[in-house]
């Protein structure tokens, strides 16, 4: 009768402490995973280099607002992949113009509407100078040259 309550007390007390510590460890691991995933999707790791920044004044009015632009407007790539990032305050697109000197069949697929902070990566198959523009603000025009 004396021995049976004692082991019951120590075994019931010990798991409680381990349980709290385990939950703190799990919470810490979850926080670390969320932070690392956030950095990954924000492009902080080497796999996602932003080549061209899309900038604006958060208004893009009136038509022709020069604060809204691709930067740089002429970009010479070193490879066949280029990444844009919308660093502005309004939505933009990266829309390729099929009427340029490049065979329309070789034009990369244009972006969807890019929300603020979003990136778009195009892979080119053929060398040349590609013209593109923003489908929302048609005066935003630029070129990317693929070696
Ligand atoms: Cu735009």
Specify the number of helices. 1
The main β sheet shows up as: 4 strands, mixed
Under CATH at level 1, the class of the largest domain stands as Mainly Beta
Tally of strands: 8
Strand order of the largest sheet: 2-1-4-6
N-end to C-end Cα span = 86 Å
State the order of secondary-structure elements, H for helix, E for strand: HEEEEEEEE
Report the CATH topology name of the largest domain. Immunoglobulin-like
From the coordinates shown, what is the CATH architecture of the largest domain? Sandwich
Descriptors:
elongated, 4-stranded mixed sheet, about 150 residues, about 25% helix, Immunoglobulin-like, 1 helix, 2 domains, single chain
